[in-house]
Amino acid sequence: DAGITQSPRHKVTETGTPVTLRCHQTENHRYMYWYRQDPGHGLRLIHYSYGVKDTDKGEVSDGYSVSRSKTEDFLLTLESATSSQTSVYFCAISESLASGDHNEQFFGPGTRLTVL
Amino acid sequence: SQKIEQNSEALNIQEGKTATLTCNYTNYSPAYLQWYRQDPGRGPVFLLLIRENEKEKRKERLKVTFDTTLKQSLFHITASQPADSATYLCAPGAGSSGGSYIPTFGRGTSLIVHP
User: Where in A1-116 does DSSP place strands (E)?
Assistant: First the structure.
């Protein structure tokens, strides 16, 4: 497996509380991504990063913020968790974003988040 | 809007047969298409990438085709084994012609190989 870890692996929290998920990589890849995966929706991009302090929104960014202060770490924050944010969250990395050159994504093991 | 369609129903086949999974896309022209495998409780794992100017790509027992006229990619596993049972995701991505370079994932098709 590529050197990607996610923490925590499981979390149960209550509506309205802030939650931060961490993704850590040891591959020195430039691009990092946060996805959520829900039954019937597949993988949906939340935010991604193309460098330290450089981030952009994905398809389902409302209610989420991200930060990348170091190449190896990409944090996803739910400022005030809601039940609709109950999901499995995957972090991914890629070396490139070019068309078909080294842009395959390597995924972390996922974080299962439950918001009560 | 861009749409990616993969069979939502599971594909059940017998061991040794060839499994064929379909990925159809509409409203855009991807420059490449990736295929991933996902096992329950784990993150997707990259398998193959095919570019728009490639008709076919092979890797061991895997074969992918890319028909830009039909807007379709087919993913074949020959001599299938029970260990091939998993969900397979297709992920087309745009190139310099427009759209996002980041691949968009289909919902996946579950493959079940019976011994």
Answer: 4-7, 10-13, 19-25, 31-38, 42-51, 54-57, 64-70, 73-78, 87-94, 106-107, 111-115
Q: Tell me the average pLDDT of chain A.
A: 93
Residue A103 and residue B107: Cβ atoms within 8 Å? no
**Residue B30: what pLDDT?**
87
Query: What is the mean pLDDT, run by run of 10 residues, along chain B of 115 residues?
Result: 87 97 90 94 95 92 95 96 97 69 90 97
Residues in B closer than 8 angstroms to A58, CB to CB, are 102
- pLDDT at residue A77 in the model: 98
Q: What is the pLDDT of residue B95?
A: 60
Question: How far A91 CA lies from chain B's nearest CA (Å)?
Answer: 9
Q: What is the pLDDT of residue B4?
A: 92
Question: Which tokens belong to A46?
Answer: 């939340």
Contacts of B90 (CB under 8 A, 6+ apart): B4, B6, B21, B23, B33, B34, B35, B36, B73, B75, B105, B106
A–B CB contacts, 8 A cutoff, strictly below: 60
Whether B95 and A99 have beta carbons less than 8 Å apart is answered as: yes
Residues of chain A with pLDDT > 70, as a percent, come to: 94
Q: Which residue of A has its CA nearest to B108?
A: A42
Question: Side chain identity at A103, as an amino acid letter?
Answer: N
Nearest-Cα residue of chain A relative to residue B100? A97
The structure tokens listed for A89 are: 């969250």
Give all domains of chain A, ordered by start, each with its CATH number: 4-115 (2.60.40.10)
